[in-house]
Amino acid sequence: MKKKITFLIMIVCFAFSSFLVYDKCFSGMSLNNVSSGDRLFVWTITLIVLIYYLRLDSKPSLVPASFSSEKKKTDDMSSENNKPSVSFKDVAGLDEVKEELKEIIDFINNSEKYNKMGAKIPRGVLFYGPPGTGKTLLAKAVAGETNSTFLYASGSEFVEKYVGVGAKRVRTLFEKAKKDAPSIVFIDEIDAIGSKRNSDSNNEKDQTLNQLLVEMDGFYRSQTVIVIGATNRLDLLDEALLRPGRFDRHIYVGNPNVKARKEIFGVHTKDKPLDASIDIEDLARKTHGFSGAQLANIANEAAIIAVRNKKKVIDINDFNSAIERVVAGLEVKNPSVLEKERVIVASHEAGHALVGKILNVDMIQKVSIVPRGQALGYVLRVPDEDRYLLTKDELYSKIKVLLAGRAAEYVVFGEITTGAKDDLTKATEIAQEMVCSYGMSSLGNISIKEQYMQYAFAKIDREVKKILNSCYDEALKIVQDNKSMLTIISQYLLDNENMTGDELDYIFEQNNPSHVLAT
């Protein structure tokens, strides 16, 4: 549009110039008598418009923002600003991962001894595992330990609808990395560009992946450039990206164990005023299955709660509230729950607590009927030790505890409610894993991949229902046999809203349940 308007202005200027000359000539004046001022004015305007037209022609209007911002991005990547100060001292836990990375760090810092042996530096390291486990922090620590340039990019930054933009960004990133070697190129959420290709697709994302593969293969031996990728979904990545020579090492970064959680809490509480009674090891035991990011969030939430309550130190109550905040959600201050619903919730949560205590499934830390988030009540359970293997009976017991809330509703009120929605979802997931992944059903020792489940849906559905129904019947029997205990627990919740694990233990000590407690 701009080019058309400019061209039109040029025609008008030429026409005006011709008219001026024509008018001068036919009014009895010679061409030499046309004033130089008129000529200068017309030709100046014409020249300005011509230059503007040529500049428009030299800058194509297609994706100007995408391409013009690339140089600015590169210029902003100063090597001085990309030298992280993070080291392994700032990374708590993950000892085995740090040990694995020390070889790469030593190779960068002392490459001569490896070159003498003919060893080649790994070109790529892939971190995979659940979110919030410290993958980005580890990459920064590698750069900090080697004093290398750290270049960060997210996989989504390379995904564009315009052809060639993603590939150009990959080239720009690696040109910068080679220029500032030794350098660490960290690509977060690499599955955004590295997902599996198929024979029918040839889109922009595939071209970007092809460029990444070429760049990872094309490093000069004299340049020390290491690519570190991070993903939560290793199964989505293309085989060409995972092969040796590109990502030579695949390192799983999982949730921390109790020892690592204790160290992580130590890092995130070292600059916080803690009450002398706080036991970091006890906090670590209470937070089984939490990621490093969640632990950092708990420490920060505890500090915020202490400030809100105008305290000078952070005590155990602040940490307990922070754990509940992270696990169950925000507490509803003025809940508008009907008294009838409140009674149902108390019986529901009492059912979970009763069956969980009798079957000895995890350690019950707290039972509450105070609404948090979308939940009207909850039972906070944590294992008393880190577990990596579960037996078939233990999985059955977990399902029984999940279905005990609905069983308690039926025993007390003779009907069931929608309150068991989340429980049913979790129970079904466990049962489906038992059938399809663990070989713990009458289908035998078989593992069924997700893409093949649709072909055996009827058989899988039948086995899952069999597991759930048998667990529900057992949970219902336990609740019926201990109805008086259920009433005591639910009444305590109605009177106090909350019940600690110690208070639940005391109730069991004062009463004799029909089922013998598991040892």
From TrEMBL:
A molecular-function term among this protein's GO annotations: zinc ion binding
Main location, first listed in the record: membrane
Residue span(s) of domain AAA+ ATPase: 121-257
Presence of the UniProt keyword Cell cycle in the record: yes
Membrane topology recorded in Swiss-Prot or TrEMBL: Multi-pass membrane protein
EC id: 3.4.24.-
CDD domains: RecA-like_FtsH
SMART domains: AAA
Entry binding sites for ATP: 129-136
Gene Ontology CC entries for this record: plasma membrane
Co-factor note (free text): Binds 1 zinc ion per subunit.
Residue positions of the active site: 349
Family indicated by similarity: In the central section; belongs to the AAA ATPase family.
Role summary: Acts as a processive, ATP-dependent zinc metallopeptidase for both cytoplasmic and membrane proteins. Plays a role in the quality control of integral membrane proteins.
Protein known as: ATP-dependent zinc metalloprotease FtsH
Organism for this UniProt entry: Proteiniborus ethanoligenes
